[in-house]
Structures are given as C-alpha cells and as structure tokens.
Structure to design on (101 residues):
C-alpha cells in the first residue's frame, strides 16, 4: 500500500507519510524525530512553551519525540543551509553596503 506524503521533516525537508509520524518514528532522510514540537503545526517560537495551543502540556526538548496529544504535522522549510552561514551572511551584508567604487 502506498501512503501519500502529508508533511516534511523539520530538519532536512524530506517528505513524510502518515506512518513517518508514529511516536518513536524518525525521518528516513536525517533520522531526526518526527513526532516532535519542531515538526508540529502548533510550534510557535516566542509564545508560551513555544506552542500556539494554549492548553498543551509543556515540552522541554522541542526536537525530541513526545506524547503531546495536540500534535499535527506541519510543512516547515528545511533547517540551516548555506544561506544561514554567519560568515556568508556577513559577507553578503558587507557587499550590499559597500561604497560605490
């Protein structure tokens, strides 16, 4: 039986199926936990408990598997790539603000 993709890994962007979101499942691409806050549609950094669901129980480690009953897969962008490299960002800013020579 073929299961269609319903989400993406919070870390590498690999497409995930319903089976990939089991409690102890990991991403087939990077082996990171998939049933975790970082992969949930309610994940909201900066909000109380980093969660948009106000009655969800507090979870300490957002990138580890958890038992949250409010978990719903999200469609995040892949994490840290070359464009997030501090040196590359600094160089891009310097290039942007150079005097017209």
């Amino acid at each position: 039986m073929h299961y269609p993709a319903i989400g993406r890994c919070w870390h590498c962007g690999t497409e995930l199926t319903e089976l990939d979101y089991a409690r102890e499942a990991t991403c087939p691409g990077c082996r990171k936990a998939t049933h975790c806050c970082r992969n949930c549609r309610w994940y909201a950094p900066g909000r109380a408990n980093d969660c948009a669901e106000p009655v969800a129980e507090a979870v300490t480690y957002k990138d580890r598997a958890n038992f949250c009953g409010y978990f719903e897969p999200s469609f995040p962008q892949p994490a840290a790539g070359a464009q997030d490299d501090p040196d590359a960002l600094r160089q891009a800013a310097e290039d942007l603000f150079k005097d017209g020579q």
The two ends are 62 Å apart (CA to CA). Residues 1-101 form one domain. The chain has one domain: 1-101.
